[in-house]
Design goal:
- It is a single chain.
- By secondary structure, this protein is of the alpha+beta class.
- 34% of the residues lie in helices and 12% in strands.
- It has 10 helices and 11 strands.
- The protein has helices spanning 7-29, 51-68, 82-85, 90-104, 121-129, 154-164, 238-248, 261-267, 290-298, 332-345, and strands at residues 39-40, 49-50, 142-147, 182-187, 193-197, 212-214, 227-230, 255-257, 273-276, 302-305, 326-329.
- It has a 5-stranded mixed β-sheet, with helices on both faces.
- Helix 2 crosses helix 4.
Length: 351
């Protein structure tokens, strides 16, 4: 990607996401001296908060503040400091602090600076607490998506898809995944999306780190298209999307993947369609979609709400005004068929 506006921000973002992926992998595998894989059911939607969630947020906040100045950044993020700030959470906070410091010590490996001294609990809490912005009136200009458990080589994905039609979460019983993570990134208006492999072992990140262009699939026939949907059923209606899939002639079983990997799969041509229709009362959060949407669009795909309107990330922390759901496709023809099926099926749905 040629140097242009936001090139510094994109460069820093890619490097810090590399660090975040490394942290997540090490927490998951128990390679850090301070952690094991610890989960806490404290999110509003009952999804787990891990040591990695807090640690990544603190690390990213600290690095961005050091490079751009805390007065110049406004961070919207998922985790708050309430749980960590409680007296009974002292042990948990200690694990997060140790995790952050262990990973920040490796910053030079990714072309970034480590702190002169290890961060203390108050500094880690401050970094997490700094991520309290409520969103703003501007749209997304760069997108960086880290996928520590998503295989960079399509032949691995195809083999796995044939076996179980799902991309698993990180698992220490499946070590092959650890060599296959990737990072995708783009800049608005560039018409390009790029993918880099993760930096393994003790190797250093040397730009552009074997980056290659990715592009959406050219498949337009629904019978040949791969459709991906969220693994979690709590906040999405699988039965409605299954009905839509049948209505437009999708024949393959859905590829169920976690988080924004769905957008990564479309951007790099592994899948053609992603649909999500939330259950009544659930509000889509901008951090679950912003980077992925831009990646799909710049890689040649189409993302709108179910009414065919662009997603609006300028209304705060949530996708306010979202029409029924989200539809992402590799091409216009597939997208038009899905939108048409939504209008035809909606009145008979129970959403």
């Amino acid at each position: 990607m040629e140097d242009d506006k936001y090139s510094l921000e994109l460069n820093v973002a890619v490097r810090v996401v590399h660090m975040a992926c490394s942290l997540c992998q090490k927490v998951q595998k128990g390679l850090l001296s301070s952690t094991s894989f610890v989960q806490f059911k404290s999110k509003e939607d009952n999804s787990p908060v891990t040591i990695a969630d807090w640690s990544v947020q603190a690390m990213v906040s600290w690095i961005l503040s050091e490079i751009f100045g805390s007065q110049n950044i406004s961070i919207v993020a998922e985790e708050d400091v309430q749980t960590l700030s409680k007296p009974e959470s002292a042990g948990l906070l200690e694990m997060v602090v140790n995790t952050v410091n262990e990973c920040l010590s490796e910053a030079p490996r990714f072309g970034l600076k480590s702190p002169a001294q290890a961060l203390g609990p108050s500094q880690v809490l401050e970094a997490i607490g700094r991520c309290n912005a409520a969103g703003g009136p501007l749209e997304v200009v760069i997108g960086v998506l880290g996928c520590p458990n998503y295989p960079a080589k399509r032949n691995w994905l195809v083999k796995h898809e044939q076996q179980s039609h799902a991309v698993p979460e990180l698992s220490v019983t499946n070590p092959g995944i650890w060599e296959e993570g990737c990072i995708l990134y783009t800049r608005t208006g560039s018409g390009e999306a790029w993918m880099q492999p993760l930096v393994q072992g003790d190797k250093k990140l040397v730009w552009p780190n074997s980056a290659r262009l990715v592009r959406v699939s050219s498949i337009q026939d629904p019978a040949l298209a791969t459709f991906c949907e969220p693994v979690e059923e709590a906040n999405s209606n699988h039965s409605f999307t299954a009905g839509l899939a049948q209505a437009v002639g999708l024949r393959k079983k859905p590829l169920r993947v976690h988080s924004m990997v769905k957008y990564a799969a479309i951007a790099r041509g592994d899948a053609e369609i992603f649909m999500k229709f939330a259950r009544a009362g659930y509000k889509e959060k901008i951090w679950d979609h912003a980077a992925g949407v831009l990646l799909v669009q710049e890689a040649g795909g189409v993302v709108t709400d179910a009414g065919g309107r662009p997603l609006d990330f300028s209304k705060g922390m949530y996708l306010e005004g979202l029409d029924r759901g989200i539809v992402a496709c590799s091409g216009v023809k597939l997208h038009e068929k899905i939108i048409g099926a939504v209008y035809a099926s909606w009145d008979s749905s129970n959403l």
